[in-house]
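Reviewer 2 asked us to include a model.

Predict the structure of this chain.
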Amino acid sequence: MSKYAVDYALQVPTGGVTLTGGRFLRAFDNNVRFLQGFDVDRMLYWYRVQAGWPAPGAPYAAGDGHFENNLHGQTAGEFLMGACTSLLWRKDDTLQAMVQALLSEMAAYQQPNGFLLPIDRDMFRTKEYPNYTRAWVTFGLLDAGYAGFDGAFDMVRRMGDHFNHSDVLPFVKDMNLGFQGILANTRLYDSPVGVRKDIDVAIRHYQEEWWLDQLIAGDHRAIYDHPGNHPHSTLLTTLEAYLDLYRVTGWHKYLDAVRSALAMYQDKWQHVGGGIVMCEFDTYYPGCNWLSPKHKYNELCSTNFWVLLHQRMHRLEPDNALHTDQMENALYNVLLAAQVGDQGYHYLNFLQKNKDWRYLDRATCCAAMGTRLAGLLPQFLYTYNEDTVYCDLYAPSQAVLPNGVTLRVDTGWPDDGRVKVTVLEAAKPFTLKLRIPGWARPEGIGIYRTHENVQAGQVFEMEFPFTFRTVHYTGGEELKTHERWALTHGPLLYAALGAPNPLTLRFDPEHPEQWFTPQPGEKRTLTLRDDPHHMYMAYLDIHDEPFDVYPAVEWP
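Predicted model (structure tokens):
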């Protein structure tokens, strides 16, 4: 008997997908090298100090050192998330050994009652320990369990049992960003060691039915004026948990609230390129759409929650390509744009002047979510059930799926629109669903093209036109003398290079194809007609160049 009232219509692969080229492979490889650069001694520093063991090295810290110095143990959770999701798809002896070293000492440290954070018990009642830090370590141990590490599921179960009976529960939701702790419970329930108590605690101690009502009513205060300590896009991860609760209970109110929230975010809280405007510790209102780096927006954590939320929705609503359109947009134009080679991840992905410096700090919430999202890239390409396979995102890859189908995809995506899907093996005829992205259709809404009775040996070839689209800026940083316009080409967001910002350029936003010409080369660039002084570059290729996604435009 299923422990869910509502089962997913689609499954996601947890192995068997190999990236064979392209930008996803480059991002995956960069992420592996970034993870290999962590120091096990530094990740275990606070565990050893708390246990009274020798503790060589120093904890990770940059800037004010907030994350590891104020949230002891979070970096171990970060590393486990990124390394173990990566190990689902590819063997790596270095990561394997590092994960095993972490798990061995954490297991030796774990208290008889299951307590596993490297702090005094009284400190657990402070800061973000019961929610943020517990969640990060929970996610990391779960990913280690899925990657096949012995003992990881037992460790996370014992930690969950301790929390489910802890004395912080009566006030846990009212702590700093307390709402983010709910997902640790619903994800633990979804695991092989989940128990009903995980769900009971989530509902009793975290659920806010008044907030669900506010979302269903379309009240944007639910997004920017939540009274729980301070508003934050972390509320998106709460929506992930509510979808989990919908599946467990079948209560449609959860699903209605999530659908309404997604519509509000897409309407007033999402930038071109997929980033989320809402962050924290700033002035926000619906449609503010901040651009300058003096504001906080497009946090990489938000994109992680956004992608995983839409992945859940796709599994519930398979033929609604809006969800996979959103995933593609955010992965290419935020995640890949945030990654700085194998050095780290930009924390905030500004759309004007420069990207931020915080890739230099490898122990932040955004670095943690970036490593996990990059490690999951192979999972986002395909979904399936017993008799159907969906090709959701296109990247050079090969997939051996549990339903007996083996596929190979050859493509230059996202640098060109040619896609070839070859069915290498099929245990029986199946249905193949091929996504036609919204940006390649005049309506701007993606669809799935259905092929019935597909068999081994069949080949499907498609070519999607890379059209130009312009997006008119509205928001809190409109200019009095000029309109501001952003530019996309195919699936990629572009930015004008140059300083000072905002730039002022001359072209016709209604006919961008007459003004921009793609240039060959490893980095996607566009030249602007009658302007030898400025060029456009794909936003995901920009690192330290000054740029402007929304330049001021003089109409010809």
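DSSP finds 17 helices and 21 strands in the chain. The first helix runs from residue 22 to 36. We have added this to the supplementary material.
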